[in-house]
Amino acid sequence: MKLSYDIYICGVGGQGIIKAGEIIGWAAMKEGMDVVMSEIHGMAQRGGGVSTEVRIGKAKGTIIPSGHADLMMAFEPLEALRAVEKMRKDAYLIVNLTPIPPFNISLREYPPVDEIIAELGKFSRNLYAFDADRVALEAGHPLSMNMAILGAATATPGFPLSEDAIIESMRENLPERLFKVNLKAFKGGFMSLEY
């Protein structure tokens, strides 16, 4: 029996990955659940990969074992492909479609995004890829992309936290002056997921 609901969040530095993890973790505590987190900030200043692991429930450690993540929130397509070994076979995978090439390759060398998405589809039947950057721009600020991804993740079946708990955590963990924009991005992501 699985003791925790495990969420793997990945992307590149500056996309708000750690903040999204903090909001989930804070919401879990507000709902009386146990939660542990870990973060990897490798080369974030140079556009390198960043990941956060959130384990809600009775996890034995902060690192999600390979093949155990119930949900992956990928803020960048290639970073999703790098992390697929973390997911269970029936995991939900939410992916932003906007590529950010690693610092050591150009956009011309970056694999076509549709090929990356097709490859990700081999690892998850519960794949949802959408233009979260566009949702954020429509909400009023490109940096609210992380909240659009969080909104879609919150709408997945089996997500252990209520929409209200996530929104309350957003209110407590984001700058007040940006809350309305972030809430609009969150709602846009939530509504874009059709099940």
From TrEMBL:
Keyword check for Glycosyltransferase: no
GO MF annotation, one: indolepyruvate ferredoxin oxidoreductase activity
InterPro entries the UniProt entry points to: Indolepyruvate_Fd_OxRdtase_bsu, IorB_Oxidoreductase, Pyrv/ketoisovalerate_OxRed_cat, Pyrv_flavodox_OxRed_cen
Protein name: Indolepyruvate ferredoxin oxidoreductase subunit beta
The organism's place on the tree of life at top rank: Archaea
Keyword Protein transport included in the entry's annotation: no
Organism ancestry: Archaea, Methanobacteriati, Methanobacteriota, Methanomada group, Methanobacteria
NCBIfam families: IOR_beta, PRK06853.1-3
Keywords tagged on the record: Oxidoreductase, Pyruvate
First-level EC class: oxidoreductase
Coiled coil, from the record: none
Function of the molecule: Catalyzes the ferredoxin-dependent oxidative decarboxylation of arylpyruvates.
Reaction it catalyzes: indole-3-pyruvate + 2 oxidized [2Fe-2S]-[ferredoxin] + CoA = (indol-3-yl)acetyl-CoA + 2 reduced [2Fe-2S]-[ferredoxin] + CO2 + H(+)
Subunit structure: Heterodimer of the IorA and IorB subunits.
This enzyme's EC code(s): 1.2.7.8
Alphabetical list of Pfam families matching this protein: POR
Residues in Pyruvate/ketoisovalerate oxidoreductase catalytic domain copies: 13-190
